[in-house]
Structure to design on (597 residues):
């Protein structure tokens, strides 16, 4: 056991504070036993695709096609948009397009198999054992389901009606991958500041956001208001949390709604590393240098200095005011 | 008056609107668009967008004059057909319309105009079958909000690329797409009777009403805030009343609900379902 500890220590990524013992146990030891070393470069691919509304079979075929393209581009991780297997404005189609992310499911079986070659994030409708339906993202790796995120904020205003058709997710958790600790959020989740903040405190150094964002707010500016807003907050989260923030947004049309694409990757300095095209299908490849986390945080120790007890104390006070 | 800028990024508008036309037509297995070209600006813009989306060979323009129509309307429609290099077809609606109008002498302009608009709708949908083409709409946001159209007439279409653009934005986009100047410069008119113009009939200009509608609808101003922003209270009330009274033109007819699941209320699917 002593030997194991020593070896595991050497496997802790250099960008992590070794005094954080919980991290050591969770990460270093797990990685030691799995025999894998965390790579310091992540070849990321963001797939901004069109989908067929309610036609899961056709959308699965497109996923498999894009997986081949990502593999050809030597991607380690391929991220699809929100509800990429189903389409977005599902309304009464919700129950008929729901799937369970396991090997018995005809849609997830080939995706899980594909995840032996590269990690995948796919968007789908998740049905729990009590038949509640969630807007969900699944992280698949090495043939296994690593994590499922249920959308926690369902916009039900303006042009949106998600709360009418879906159950609200009730947890926000970071999770471990072979590239480090990751968090996933879906569209409206990151229009609120608290979910990215919680992921940050839960250890996420890479935040994978996905959307089916309808374009709106055409004026005389270069971009739609909705695109400007999303890009602004993505850049802000990357800057404030000194983390990688990626956004994969779908393209295409559903009735009169137009989805604008424009996938982005921001690094821990808040700098834009890549930007996919607007309005057309594309795979955007970006290499993330994970050592940037260490360099940025050595310069700008926002994570170190974050006063979570103060936040908790003030939140308790605010929430207890009847 | 509050400073209002309704101008749009025309490159971005073209990209989104042509993408919409292409997507909505091709996803149902079709490749062609058809529309009624009145000689006015709205249909000219819809037509030019359809051509940019689908190619000139996939767009058919109908000219549907009535005997009292302005000759300029026909000429201006032809100007655009020639410029875009698309197929045009002309069908005189007089023999369809006059027998109905003659049944009741002294029929009002409004009734006669509605009959013409609905006759044109019948021809549009009939020709859409001939050409295997989807009818593309030509109503802009201003006239949709004001209800300035004939229900089941000129408001009828399969898809509408310009229905979220105010008239002043239609003008701006039309300029950027090189719509012929005579079409852009002439006073907007439904051309249903002699000397009819939109602005005379409505009692205000598009420039004025577009700004007001933009505040009330897009920016969610209250009537009082619109007055504080510099609009006359009477004008604000007139416009709000028009918008409210014409709501029926913007909706499917309500169905009386008796079952557990009723079209329109709890049988909810997009039109693009399965495509």
């Amino acid at each position: 056991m002593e030997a194991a500890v020593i070896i595991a220590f050497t496997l802790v990524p250099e960008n992590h504070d070794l005094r954080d013992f919980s991290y050591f146990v969770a990460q270093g030891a797990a990685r030691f036993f799995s025999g894998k070393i965390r790579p310091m470069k992540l070849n990321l691919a963001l797939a901004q695709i069109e989908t067929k509304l309610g036609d899961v079979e056709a959308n699965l075929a497109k996923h498999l096609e894009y997986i081949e393209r990502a593999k050809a581009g030597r991607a380690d991780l391929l991220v699809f948009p929100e509800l990429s297997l189903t389409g977005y404005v599902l309304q009464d189609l919700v129950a008929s397009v729901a799937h369970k992310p396991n090997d018995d499911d005809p849609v997830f079986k080939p995706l899980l198999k594909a995840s032996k070659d590269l990690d995948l994030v796919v968007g789908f409708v998740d049905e729990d054992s009590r038949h509640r339906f969630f807007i969900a993202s699944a992280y698949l790796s090495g043939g296994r389901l690593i994590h499922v995120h249920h959308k926690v904020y369902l916009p039900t205003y303006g042009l949106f009606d998600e709360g009418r058709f879906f159950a609200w997710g009730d947890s926000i958790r970071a999770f471990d991958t072979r590239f480090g600790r990751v968090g996933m959020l879906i569209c409206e989740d990151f229009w609120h500041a608290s979910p990215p903040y919680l992921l940050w405190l839960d250890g996420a150094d890479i935040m994978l956001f996905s959307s089916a964002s309808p374009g709106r707010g055409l004026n005389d500016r270069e971009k739609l208001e909705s695109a400007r807003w999303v890009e602004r907050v993505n850049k802000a989260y990357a800057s404030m949390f000194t983390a990688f923030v990626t956004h994969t947004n779908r393209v295409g049309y559903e009735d009169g709604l137009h989805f604008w694409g424009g996938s982005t990757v921001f690094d821990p300095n808040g700098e834009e590393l890549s930007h996919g095209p607007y309005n057309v299908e594309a795979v955007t490849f970006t290499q993330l240098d994970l050592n940037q986390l260490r360099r940025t945080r050595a310069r700008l120790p926002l994570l170190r200095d974050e006063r979570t007890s103060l936040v908790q104390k003030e939140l308790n006070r605010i929430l207890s005011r009847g | 008056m509050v400073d209002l800028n309704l101008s749009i990024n025309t490159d971005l508008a073209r990209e989104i609107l042509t993408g919409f036309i292409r997507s909505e037509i091709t996803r149902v297995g079709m490749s062609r668009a058809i529309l009624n070209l009145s000689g006015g600006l709205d249909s000219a813009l819809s037509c030019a967008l359809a051509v940019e989306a689908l190619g000139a060979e996939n767009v058919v323009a109908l000219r549907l004059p009535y005997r009292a129509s302005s000759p300029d309307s026909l000429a201006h429609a032809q100007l655009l057909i020639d410029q875009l290099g698309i197929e045009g077809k002309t069908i005189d609606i007089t023999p369809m319309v006059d027998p109905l109008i003659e049944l009741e002498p002294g029929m009002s302009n409004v009734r006669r105009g509605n009959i013409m608009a609905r006759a044109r709708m019948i021809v549009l949908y009939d020709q859409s079958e001939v050409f295997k083409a989807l009818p593309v709409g030509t109503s802009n946001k201003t006239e949709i909000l004001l209800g300035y159209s004939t229900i089941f007439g000129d408001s009828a279409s399969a898809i509408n690329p310009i229905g979220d653009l105010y008239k002043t934005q239609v003008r701006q986009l039309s300029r950027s797409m090189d719509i012929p100047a005579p079409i852009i410069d002439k006073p907007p008119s439904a051309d249903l009777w002699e000397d009819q113009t939109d602005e005379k009939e409505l009692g205000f200009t598009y420039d004025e009403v577009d700004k007001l509608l933009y505040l009330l609808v897009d920016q969610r101003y209250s009537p009082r805030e619109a007055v504080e922003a510099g609009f006359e209270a009477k004008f604000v009330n007139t416009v709000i009343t028009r918008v409210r009274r014409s709501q029926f033109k913007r909706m499917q007819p309500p169905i009386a609900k008796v079952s557990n699941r009723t079209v329109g209320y709890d049988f909810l699917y997009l039109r693009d379902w399965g495509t």
Q: What stands out?
A: Chain A is about 30% helix and 25% strand. The interface with chain B takes residues 52-55, 89, 91-93, 215, 218-224, 252-256, 258, 278-279 of chain A (CB under 8 Å). Residues 8 and 30 of chain A are 8 Å apart (CA to CA). Residues 56-72 of chain A form the longest helix (17 residues).
